[in-house]
Amino acid sequence: MGQKTFDRKHKEDKPVLAICYDFDKTLSPNDMQAQGYIQSVGYDIKDFWDESNGLAEQNDMDQNLAWMFTMKKKAEGQVLFTRDELVKYGSKVRLFPGVEDWFKRIREYGQKHGVIVEHYIISSGLKEMIEGTCVADEFEKIYASSFYYDEHNVAIWPAQVINYTNKTQFLFRIEKGVLDINDQGVNEYFSPEKIRVPFRNIVYIGDSDTDIPCMKLVNKSGGHSIGVYNAETKDKAKVYKMMREDRIKYYVPADYSEGSEIDVLLKNIIDKTEKNEVLEETYYKCEKEAIDADKKSNAEDREKINLIIALEGSRSFATTHEVIKDLSAYNEWSEDDKETLFSIAINNSQVFSILGDRDVKEFYQKLLSKSKINSENAKKVQKGLNSCQ
User: Fold this and answer.
1) What are the tens digits of pLDDT across the range 188-203?
2) pLDDT at 123
3) Beta bridge partners of 141
4) Distance CA 79, CA 42 (A)
């Protein structure tokens, strides 16, 4: 069997800003399962979660696997447990104010400022429900827990389980443009200038402890972690805690309307990205030029250049004597290097003051004897040497 070829995203000619969202209580006011599904199987919301979490505790079970099992079990004899039905439940999920036009609005702002804005979901919630929301098409990729379905489209087994600890892997996929969850290329090395979305251009938006690993990774890697809280309850306890523990850089109410705090904040991040990436490109250009220059020269040439730079920067007689000793080991110098050394002798007072010292004098006399240069600096060096006799 041949190896599958995966589609990957590659570095663009413009900077990419990836905004990654949790879903429940970040884009929606409540857990998605509690907005229709739990009620449809005749359960009280608290009782459903108590039973699910109890199942996890009693069996050393992942909490996400526990609620997925509980969902399937409670559906038996009550409701159809198919992909289509789960998508329908998703269509009833409420969203915070402004969410519906947020994604397009932020993309368009980025476009005006030369920044490609992409939106991603990284959620422990259910992918099928998120796909049923009116904003599902706004995301480049939805990473969330999901089911495997049989030939009748009935959910029979977990296909993907995303919890707070494994969420971070998707940030690395986004960073490298390796989005398919089965693409092992995420483990390959990418040089910094080839990274599609460096962490400094990743934004993570979440609301609770389950988001902390992603928030911490983004925050410590130079990106932007944002905590959100419900604007109606104004309960900031969780974001205060995340701020104290250095998990987030900012916190704002979960109101995504135009002109809201998060709207202004994201636009400022886009503005910063636009300017910062110009500097980064300049840095990579300079670095590449320096590397290319090194490739064209041999080790001896590079060492000579380093010694010339050291002599130019010398601020003590001891350092000058040490560098002159190393320079004297070389007999061949280009005319340009000689002119640079003559210029240093005239313009660096630490060198000029000790032209008469034996080692310095011998080095420059030898340099003059083999030089075709008749520049003003060469003449001044000769004059300085003559005055030392």
Assistant:
1) 888 887 899 999 999 9
2) 94
3) 120
4) 10
Helices 317-327, 299-312: crossing angle, 10 deg rounding:
160
For residue 288, give both structure tokens. Answer: 């590449």
Q: Do the beta carbons of residue 248 and residue 207 sit within 8 Å?
A: no
Buried b (16+ CB within 10 A) or exposed e, 360-389: bbebbeebbeebeeeeebbebbbebbeeee
**What one-letter code names the amino acid at 1?**
M
Rounded average pLDDT over 257-273: 97
CB 164 within 8 Å of CB 211: yes
Specify whether the CB–CB gap between 107 and 14 falls below 8 A.
no
Other C-beta atoms within 10 Å of 213: how many? 18
pLDDT at site 132:
95
110-146 pLDDT, tens digit per residue, is 999 999 999 999 999 999 999 999 999 999 999 999 9
Q: CB 123: neighbour CB atoms within 10 A?
A: 27
Kindly give, in sequence order, each residue whose CB lies less than 8 Å from that of residue 291, ignoring residues fewer than 6 positions away.
none
DSSP-derived pairing of the beta strands 116-126 and 16-21: parallel
Render 112-156 in DSSP notation, one character per residue: HTT-EEEEEEEEEEEHHHHHTSTTGGG-SEEEEEEEEE-TTSBEE
Can you read off the two tokens belonging to residue 338? Answer: 């000689």
Please report the pLDDT score of residue 127 as a whole number: 96
Give the residue-averaged pLDDT of 327-333: 91
Here the tokens at position 243 are 């701020």
Q: What is the C-alpha separation between 113 and 270, in angstroms, rounded?
A: 8
Q: What is the pTM of this model?
A: 0.76
pLDDT in tens, 305-316: 899 999 998 888
- 116-126 vs 224-229, strand pairing mode: unpaired
Nearest CA to 276 among 12, 9, 17, 10?
Answer: 17
- How far apart CA 52 and CA 68 sit, in angstroms, is 9
Cβ neighbours around 113 below 10 Å, total: 16
Place of tokens 């320079």: 327
